[in-house]
Amino acid sequence: MTVVGxxxxxxxxxxxxxxxxxxxxxxxxxxxxxxxSEVPFITEAAQHLVRAGGKRFRPLLVMLAAxxxxxxxxxxxxxxxxxxxxxLATLYHDDxxxxxEVRRGVASANVRWDNSVxxxxxxxLFARASHILADLGPEAVRIQAEAFERLVTGQIxxxxxxxxxxxxxDHYLDVLAGKTGSLVAVSGRFGAMMSGxxxxxxxxxxxxxxxxxxxxxxxxxxxDIASDSHESGKTPGTDLREGIPTLPVLHLRAxxxxxxxxxxxxxxxxxxxxxxxxxxxAEALRRLRVHPALEQARRDTVRYAEEARATLAPLPxxxxxxxxxxxCDAVVHRAG
Length: 336
Fold this sequence. Notes:
The chain is mainly alpha-helical.
């Protein structure tokens, strides 16, 4: 049993391990190549987050999905580079919108340089992803375009907030399906499709990625409150400080509205106050970490991960399927 990829995923087959490791190494080289520019400053900015590391969650899913066809097919690695470049580009933009200071354990691009550089660097990465995508065929371009539309729609919905009468939790889960689930779904789809897997398998791995992506983001929501910066690679409570409604906070608000417990109402008032104040922010984090709403968010994470696992049932038993099942466990483990 060898540990590879993010979260210490264990692979129980030497051939699969070799394929995954080789594929991820090729993706890493592809990322560095795709982020090179004739302008040295652009190269430095574009490679800022590439060199900071990261879980490479999406490329790993591409590699595992490709095992259900020909994992050595020429489109597999480039498609993994495309999804990771797209993901990296969204991080540059997200950090500007969230005014984040740390990403992957290093200063975010907007802090190291400024907002304009961060936004334009994200645009540069989108352009490079599109350039690679053009060589993968019109169907791949269409799939990526649809996913990108969903991603942006999810971001807009998050910014706009739920319409009157809409359950905020349901609205938020729709946001996550767009912002995160869409690109993880494409990772599963590209891996299977580029490897020439059967269309049924492509559909299964697309659905798997959609659910796993939502579970992955819900785990991030839990980590934003429950972890320290060493665990998460970013400043704890970043979303909290910026007033971004994550699932634990939404559950807290729902409980406060339903039951009217004084301690819940007091915590809601604290969250609605000025959390740029370090003392108030620390107090809000301390209270949320012991509140039942955090455990409820953990249960939701488990539910989505189990739904992802269930979609895999029709696939033939093999080491790649076992690894995909373990990926569900690994995502849940991140949330404690």
